[in-house]
Amino acid sequence: MARALGAGPVARGESELADDAVASRDVAVLSEAQARAELERLAGLINAANKAYHADDDPEISDAEYDRLKHRNAEIEARFPALKRADSPSEQVGAAPTEGFAKVRHAVPMLSLANGFEDEDIEEFTQRVAKFLGLSEDALAYTAEPKIDGLSLSLRYESGRLVQAATRGDGAEGENVTANARTIESIPARLEGAPDVLEVRGEVYMSHDDFAALNARQEERGGKTFANPRNAAAGSLRQLDSKVTASRPLAFFAYAWGEVSEPFAQTQMAAIERLSGWGFSTNPLTRLCKGAQELIAHYREIEAQRGELAYDIDGVVYKVNDLALQARLGFRSTTPRWAIAHKFPAELAWTRLEGIDIQVGRTGALSPVARLTPVTVGGVVVSNATLHNEDYIAGRDNKGAEIRGGKDIRIGDMVQVYRAGDVIPKIADLDLSKRPGDAEPYIFPDKCPECGSAAIREEGDAVRRCTGGLICPAQAVEKLKHFVSRKAFDIDGLGARQIEMFYNDDQLPIREPADIFTLQRRDAENLSKLKNREGYGARSAEKLFEAIEEKRRIGFARLLFALGIRHVGEQAAKLIAGYFLGWDAFIAAMEAAQDEDSAAWAELLSIDGVGEVMARSLVTAFAQPEERASIDRLAAELTIEDAEQAAADSPVSGKTLVFTGTLEKMTRAEAKARAEALGAKVSGSVSAKTDLLIAGPGAGSKAKKAAELGVETIDEDGWLSLIEGL
Ligand code: IVH
């Protein structure tokens, strides 16, 4: 089975091997010297691929290529057992390359940016901001600056000294790369006159010239070359040996900040000037603009200069200039409301569609994947692309309207592929004039290719799904992969590759999540021990058991997300866990909510952010007997920690609020965002669960109902004084 789509498509390995005579020679005819050299080369390539894959940077080679390398390594070792290396890749189970870096929890999370592509997206953005703040559009100024295509870094200064540098990681927790950051020339080691605590954030990048020179040097020495400057910068910063980083030409632009002990500016522009004053490089193309039209004009100017810039950029970032307004706008779950990245159009390339594979996901969705003749798009080799669903292949969108002028996609077609940012490649168009005469319309399967169960499409669903449930091995494996993934259980040494191996293991199978936590017990009772399996030794088996043991204690939200219930993503899981707080209370609520006339069902729907679709999906997951039994077996193995109440010290945290009537000092959107940021739940209707009603002028039936139910009611000024200073 192929890896998750996003992880699979990039390939670099093929060309590297092409002109190397030994690399393509049959194992049977290798001399001993050639075999030794070949084992060394394979160890290098496989270890690099493990590192790229497991450290969650872009994987560099395709699954097929990885398997080919491992197979060849095993073949040579079988023929020349004496040549087996101490660091043989056959002894390793997906190296954990990041082990060398300590984890750092960011004092202020490192967020990403919402994206816009069209001018209209930017117009909508400026309208949205003005509306949220209740200000007129022309009153608002924004900074516009290039979006650097590198990797973000947070630098912590205490008393003017650089004390810590951390990568973004998952936004909440990154890696400590302090020693490496100290080797970067444009990062000052000391700041004069800076706040006592100051976290400076920005982008580490490599210029085009430096990238070309580095690759030439690497090639000369037979070292690894990089696909593009971004990968080179990432690979260079995340070196365990800071001497290697020091030898790499990295640079840094500062553009933001995290924790600060005292404010150091009132506007974005002034803040950038302060950063520059302390010795940071800041981008010279940063401008102050008013309104969408000025922003778009500056975007066009930067776009026109893009080819001549010394470094890669992939768009222009707009930020509300006034920092007080930024604070009022606040954040959505992972992006600020006060900023947007206006991305450049994606690069395009033509190639041939060689075939269509159907992958079955954890919720049974049949996803068609285009297998392409490999082609370079934006510096990366692409060999597959998503085809979304059967309507998309047929030339229709999910409302039945024509796309691509109604042209259907057929195997053999010349197709135009693009990569929008770092995401999965897509197909933009196809060339009918190049269609082979015998190309047939693609017939989407109505049976699951993995388990043969009927694959059906429910009304209103764009996706066809396998009905096999737990009997479908593809669904089971994908669910397990999701279960161990980084934002779920994140078990060291148990990644997608190992899940596939254990799933198919007859002696020590992992077929459902609970099996992970019984693995060590079963191993102890078993004659065929893990340590004797290919890829394991006593040490690595022990390490895996330890890593599993470490995750036996788990937070409620993480567990809920890990279950992979349809429509319940990471944010939803946090929301639900934050509402029910404890696992037992949640389970009881799910049982009670099976009856859609029950108070429990109404309560589930009253959680802001939980709609009917999600609620039904949740309730069904716990109502289905086999699935429920599997969850119970898992829960019995775990210690589930209660969820934390967000911002527990605010007077409204954990409370359910309702706003009604007209608010005069802030918009409804802002009031709701503030309340949620303070840990409150905002509901649209008054019920016995409501803790507080904030009623502006013109409040009607809701105020009446609140009075009947004895719900505390305050006006807007009461609300403002309640949250003042928080
Ligand atoms: S501001 C809270 N400004 O883009 C917002 N980000 O897609 C913080 N990036 O993770 C980001 N150039 O790595 C900002 N001038 C710029 C940027 C920039 C590049 C990166 C950054 C961020 C990503 C979000």
Describe the structure.
By secondary structure, the protein is α+β, with helices and mostly antiparallel strands. Among the domains are: 14-91, Helix hairpin bin (Helix Hairpins, Orthogonal Bundle), CATH 1.10.287.610; 348-434, Nucleic acid-binding proteins (OB fold (Dihydrolipoamide Acetyltransferase, E2P), Beta Barrel), CATH 2.40.50.140; 472-551, 5' to 3' exonuclease, C-terminal subdomain (DNA polymerase, domain 1, Orthogonal Bundle); 555-641, 5' to 3' exonuclease, C-terminal subdomain (DNA polymerase, domain 1, Orthogonal Bundle), CATH 1.10.150.20; 656-723, BRCT domain (Rossmann fold), CATH 3.40.50.10190. Helix 4 runs antiparallel to helix 10. The protein is globular. 36% of the residues are buried. It binds 2-(butylsulfanyl)adenosine. 2-(butylsulfanyl)adenosine is lined by residues 111-113, 145, 147-148, 152, 168, 203, 255-256, 317, 336, 339, 341.
